[in-house]
Queue: 4 jobs
Job 1
Amino acid sequence: MSPSRHSCFMESGVYNRLVEAAKKRNMSVYKYTNELVSRALDLEESGISLESVRSYALLLESLSKYKGRIAVLPFDAVLNTEVPHWEGLGRGLGLLLRQMGKTKEELVSLAASAIKFLFQFMGEVSYGDGMSISFPFLHVEMQKRLVQFAKAFVIALSSSMGLEVEVREEESGLEVKFKAP
């Protein structure tokens, strides 16, 4: 016995895009729609927002265009760089991301995704009233160095994206708030 079907309405432009995407995959619109919606619901139900997935995908694509393949490096490689390298990375990535966002909200979301992507592997990144980047499990000297790198990166990234940002140094990390225009 096949599952029951229910009607679903959408804008004609979305439907036309759906038809084209289904054709490219040699799938029926019905099957492709079910696959997309089912996967989207799986993500949402597991606590991952579609906007977050979209931002990460765009960020990874931009990073690969900017720097090529992404490699995970040992902390020594990270710590043996200098602040100007982090500023350059922030500036370059910011210029790429600026082209992807149309509104201030989109730009802030892209900037936040870039910050989270880069620093979540070295410490903790959390959202609240703003963003908090911390390195609580590292040696104090390593924390201080990473705080300086993160600060340089965030300021350069935001500046090249045309965003105003307030960055406040904390004991083992940073507090980041994007300002309204």
Note: The helical segments are 12-24, 29-45, 50-67, 75-79, 83-98, 104-119, 140-160.
Job 2
Amino acid sequence: MEKLTLRSRITQAKIIGAIVSISGALLVVLYKGPAMFLTSPSTHSKPLLQWPLCISLSNWVTGGFLLIAQCLLNSIWYILQAHIIKIYPAELVVVSLYLLCASIISVPACLMAEQDLSAWRLKTDVALVSVVLSGFFGSSFSTLVHTWGLHLKGPVYIAIFKPLSIAIAAIMGVVFLGDTLHLGSVIGAIIICIGFYAVLWGKANEEGTTYSSDSKTPLLQSLKVEDTETN
């Protein structure tokens, strides 16, 4: 787990870096700015997704509170998962049990949301491929990687990649989906990278100081043992 020493430069770098990364992610989402790179209108004349602009304000407020709750629950889950992996360091077993419990909880929730059983039939088309790939890469593989990272580096190291994923998604949207690159996305991505590397710098220095202190401890203990033997 993380150690907070507010007077330490390492802790200050991690806190400031996390705040900077979150600020950059908010800038990417909330501010567009002028367009810097326009795609060809002939190839992407019609957008793939239509945003429902007629949604009422109450739905936006509810969705915002749900997103905040998701972020808080994800943070709590990362901390709990780090404790579980520390006690029982078997990533595959933990991930398998987690996905099994998630499937058991999701079945009644999905049936309540969609009561038409014909909608759950999978046909041999792109829908089946998307479901399989989403289940493998979106749930199983990503959860395994997160658990493995929690075991090695801790929850802060995993959580700091969340703002960076927003910048990566913006870049991938421009490259593969033909989205328009705006100034807000560029500035936000730069701010996210600055905060990201600040947190990584703090983590690297923290691990370096921990390693140096651990390497000095056996020598001190051996000197104490020698002193007691001579006396």
Note: The first strand starts at residue 35 and ends at 37.
Job 3
Amino acid sequence: MTTAPSANFISVSSHSSVLRGRGLVFVLLFMVSGCATKGDTRLLQETLAEQKVEQDFQLLMISEEIQDLKDSLEDQLEDQSDRLLNIRGDIGLDLTNIQDQLSRLSVLTGQLQRSMVTLSERLAVNGNQNPVGFGTEDLSPDIGSGDRESSITPEEIYQAAMVQFNRGSFGTARRAFESFLMVHPDHRLAPSAQFFLADLLSQENSLDEAIEAFLRILELYPTSDRVPQALYRVGELFVIQENIEEAINHLERLITTYPDSGAAELAQELLQEIR
């Protein structure tokens, strides 16, 4: 972009213009007085010509500055337009991805619900045929089997259950976690599924069942990271039931066995409150 004329240039140009202007005035006055010669007339013509050249030059400089400013503004507008288009494109892509994920979750939830209905029917049938037990090994083909619309992986079942849990659909989430644990009891996500199942029971105010469900984590998954959390929740529930002795036993067991866990710090605080 062409820069504006410097201050010195403008000052010199202005000074020259003033001098020429004064000279022109003097010549005109001299001619009016009737004493002008041919030389004076030539001087006036030369002065006028010089002034016209200078004015033309200044107009040219101003035109170039205006053009440079216009070009700069057009470049800035083009850059801003490109940025807006990129932002709109990114937002559109993000919305598309979110819609795709929601559609997939909706499909998974529908498949899970259909699988749970089939599982419930099988439970009812087996309950009538076999009063002693229903045999979970016969139920596993119902979920993720080849004759379904598409196979459902354990991770997808767990994810669908967590979606319902986060939505507050506790009944649906509880049935989903129960189905997951029945069909995939040894899966790496099973301790977490058992933990959230116990948490749901506590939120339904089934405190005895919740305590039992939390303690099953210690029994079935003793090496899981969920064990310290389960012990703390058991202690918490015993406090709610005002069974302080059992609460202290489980909280102290947590602090002794898992002293470096975050749950142990919470247990120490709770112990100070109830003692």
Note: The chain has nine helices and no strands.
Job 4
Amino acid sequence: MPRRSSSASSCSWAASDPSPSSQRSPPLPRASTTPILQKGPTLVNPLDKLLPSARPIDLPPVAIIGLGRFGSAMAEELHSHGVDVLGIDVEEKLLHDNDPHLTDSFIADATDPEALKQLGVKDFQQVVIGIGSGLEASILTASNLVELGVKDIWAKADSDAHARILTRVGVHHVVRPERDTGRRVAHLLSGRFQDYTVFDQGYAMITLRAPKELVNHSLNRHSLWAKHRVQLVAVHSGNQWAPPFADHQLSPDDDVILAGAPADLEKFGRR
């Protein structure tokens, strides 16, 4: 039986409501007004905690099961962009620690299908499984969500075998944050790149200081591709990013984003 966390607010998808979707609170406002929503015994402006540079993400409420490092980071990011987040975990402390980023929270065992039904999880369009180290709990939770008919399930995996099982169970998106971060940092160790993003084994993007051969010259994207097999995607100049224009001349302090095969990017970065 799920129970509300002691720090949780009153929300329309509460377990006592047999039809969570019928009374769910409306999406967070996008206008510059300052509407107020009821949360527990106090009134709060849901936009007060938005970061100064944050902009609302157009997403319906998201349920996150498992609020460890991965789940809590996702809850914080979604909340900072105005998305309602339901947190579910077996540990009340984790729910309490993440309360500033949660619209509502419940102490519940997601491996129990009845608990998920009572929470109305099937009414969420997107559910994230943040359980990683507990292989059995992760797989059982995923199986329960698939049987409930959740349309978009995301799950964290800690190994290739874990990822394969989640995919076979029916999870739509499986992420490997530790593996992906390790691969990314491996390319940053040289100090040549400011950022490195891999899209798949054959394509990546890097951010780096403008190479000397591009400085004080009009940009020629076709020549750059023909010579080095890398594509200039964007230029950071004067504190803002912009598309590369042919008549733009890079300064030594500019940064650029390049895309291409990882081997070609590494080779170009050594120039």
Note: Helices lie at 69-80, 92-97, 113-118, 135-148, 160-169, 177-188, 221-228, 262-269.
